[in-house]
Amino acid sequence: MQDDLRNASADLQACVDTTTPATRGSIALIGAGPSGLAGARNLQKLGIPFQGFEAYTDVGGLWNIANPRSTVYASAHLISSKRTTEFSEFPMADSVADYPSHRELCRYFSDFAEHFDLRRHFRFGVRVLKVEPVSDREDTLWRVTIATADGGTEAAEYKGVVIANGTLAEPSMPRFEGHFSGELLHTSAYKHAEQFKGKRVLIVGAGNSGCDIAVDAVHYAESVDISVRRGYYFVPKYVFGKPADTLGGKRPLPPWLKQKVDSTVLKWFTGDPTRFGFPKPTYKMYESHPIVNSLILHHLGHGDIHVKADIARFDGATVHFKDGTQQDYDMVLAATGYTLHYPFIARELLNWQGMAPRLHLNIFAPGRRRLAVLGMIEASGIGWQGRYEQAELVARYFKALDADTPAARDFEAAVQGPPPDLSGGFKYLQLERMAYYVHKDTYRAAVRNAAAALG
Q: Model-level pTM greater than 0.85?
């Protein structure tokens, strides 16, 4: 009887494939935009095997306007200057504009991928459907299911997962009371100012995209209004003939002093926006992302754009505002931002709390050893180099985990919490778009220090 059981066990074992698929030693990297390319470059540098996945047919993410998921428009440019935004190891050419267009940026990312031979690491035209742990262990393998270009599906297991699919692709569309009989769009559907031709346009929200698009609209629309619910700080793109974000002392000021000094200097260049109808900000400078635009106040001063109060309700073509006024429009364009969107992974795996995941350094999920997110970060002046440094930390951590170093164990303990304070002493507004906002210098120092300790 025992011989029969041993023989049966041997037969069963012979039927089981005990080989380890090649993917089980690799990292799955999702996305080939700026953060995905930063991830690919740093994994490549440390010799960590990985497989990249990109839903579009080439690199560039949202900056590739041919990408159906791109949310950029024909006139889109960076709101930060090229020298504070570029990857340090691959500077933009001197011939590139101070504030590059999406066309220049698409070429830049294409050249970056070409220079470092990154495309060969990606499968293009495939969409990630599901990412799930194989077990409850901290060092679990991860099963990644994809939709292929031919309509089929595939699944494979990976040693870890790096999510880098971006933060500006899923529109955040507010709900309005009543019904609007004209065109009601989100800025993600805006591509060219000719869409405004001959129309009475209301733009909802005065963030950076809203202001840029309002400036576009004045050249085509019959009228342009902008509805706001709060005040803003407006920063010109040039100060003393140089990009505004390249100025400033090398020694950081205390938050309260920087807010006082910079808001005073700002008034010298922009005046007081309340004279154009904007509410007075109820928060201090840098507690929300400033508006970097040299033209919006110009057009307000020329009467090309008018400021309206927050919307109360729609009634056909009529928009009623909360200050009791009303006006008719042909188009309402919601410049209301984007929501974090990781549809292929369960929220609890990312420690989602409130409006955003709660990740160590906005990167690492507690309780999951090789699960990381790149690019889930906003900060004034963080640039792509800030994302690159995130990727460098991820690669070093994964490498140290493979070697089971004391530094890896120390960092793993740090990932479990408590989280460090990355605010730099600023009290950021409790808004969805600010839910993963950090102070640039504080954040980059924390990431660099962690990477150095693992190095």
A: yes
